[in-house]
Amino acid sequence: MFYGPVNRADNTVQEPRLSPVSRLGALRLRALELLLTARLFRPGPVRTSLTTRKVPSRGCRAGLKEQSIEASPPLQLHMMSTTESKSNSPAASVNVGTVGEKDTAAVHVHNASHGHYQEEGELRRGFSLLSCLGLAFAILNSWNAMSASAQIVLPSGGSVAMLWGLVVSALATLTMAVSFAEVCHVYPMTGGQLDWTYLLVPEKYRNFASFFVGWMGSTGWISLAASASIIVSNFLSGIIVMWNENFELKTWQSFLFYLAATIISWGLNAFGLKILPTLDRIAGLWSMAGIVVVSITILACSSGRFASAADVFTKFSNETGWPDGLAFFLGLLQSMFGLTGFDAVSHLVDEVPRPARTAPMVMVMSICLGATSAFIYLVIFLFCVQDFDALVSSPTGPILQVFLQSTKSLGGATALLVIFNLIAQIFAGQGLTTVASRMVFSFARDRGLGHISPYVGHVHVGLKTPVNAITFVCIWIVVLGCIQLGSSIAFNAIIASSVVFLQISYIIPMTALVIRGQACLEGNHHQKAVWSLGRFRRVINSIALAMLIFTTVIFTFPPAIPVNGESMNYVVAVLGVAIILCLGTWFVDGRKNYHGPRDIDARLAIAATAL
């Protein structure tokens, strides 16, 4: 039975008539909803039923018609196939239900012209607030990522850029996070920035803009997942070199470690859906425990052999050939890398109860927790460095070198690295693959990947997870890893790619926020927004946009001059290939078949019930 407005053949909307008894029942359910939603941040499923409310049809309210939607009893909602018609088509109608007891999220799409339902499996709402926060903290993995990439910043500003650059990066990233948290509160959509772009930019440009952002965002998340695999590879390679100084590790051997890490992430995501929320909670706790245990251990073992406070807080070094100021900003790549990916939870909103409240809070909290824990850990890390020159040139990597300098034991250094850093990085790789696959899945569902979109945008009915999207992501992770076979600076290229691509995907929706302001955020619901920047919105958005543009340009510079094969910044080449593929797909398929997020009216209606 259809409980909402009817999409008739003449494309008009007929309001349903309610009897007095039905109206009384609706008022009782509304009172129950207000009682339940007063508990703002309680994780877990919430059953709600709404009376008629207005939601925008396809984008910001300005200049667009509104559509009334009345909530139906709890339904199982199923994701639409990429081959179905859009929900606003005259020939299609959409049943929108609330989250039921089974915590499944989806859309039931009825095609009136064919008289049947199209179902493509379902995604479970299994991520609570704690599991989302654990996933976000484990994905950022800031303390581990920043110490593992210390070789990037030490020649480009030294400890000054490592610590105070982190402060600059944290403040900049926080402006981005709070800006997008406000958008996510109004429009909690799985596509994240690609869906927001479609909703925020003018109608004339929205299709191509969201298509381009989808490509940049998907490539960025794939690159970020690849960075986790290459860090795991570097850890294992460093252990072998540390125990066997005369052993010459081949690049193909390191690539095998990279491949193993990728396969682990693929297996956990494809077949471990039921344990992923629990695994994400464990990952967050494991990462926090690692900070505490590793810090205490290296402090205790380094007793009496600490670096001076001047070396830790004020030592500036510049071995790049660039001017000191530019070298400092080049060093920000390390800290920006450690904080990149704060939008992770926005790509899981179909699997998060009450996403309009949970997702924005997790986005902001992840930056605060990641930056604070990383700063404390890096201060301890630098105090335990006894030879800064050895840290830069060590074949084992910076983390193992500090552990070895502190513990004076091969076994002790190995145990610390394996138990905490290595396992935390494997958790991060699994989480990054989860988010990357959801981003790609959402984009493919909207026909963003051309002719392979129906395949990649499919949810496995039995496993209830987008297995094809997970496989697609992991294949591209392996392709990116092939850079490791031909270049000794693949690590820098992959890290720079992950930051640059994601920042490009943030720039376009942030620009729309700065230009259009409140007009973009009139809402997907009539209630007062919990997350609102108010009068400070445009200032914060402008600061975020300025930092995004500036750092994106800076991170494409060569890390050192004069430029040669070893100092070239290969992110430019990777970016060029991605743009060529994006434009090629657009002209071959996208301009005809890509029309932005599918079922956007129904998805916004579902989001409206999650308040």
Automatic annotation (TrEMBL):
This is Choline transport protein. The chain crosses the membrane at residues 126-143, 163-187, 208-235, 255-273, 285-306, 326-349, 361-383, 410-429, 467-487, 493-515, 536-558, 570-588. Its main location: membrane. The keyword Transmembrane applies. Keywords: Membrane, Transmembrane, Transmembrane helix, Transport. It is a multi-pass membrane protein. One of its GO terms (cellular component) is membrane. GO terms for molecular function: transmembrane transporter activity. Gene3D superfamilies: Amino acid/polyamine transporter I.
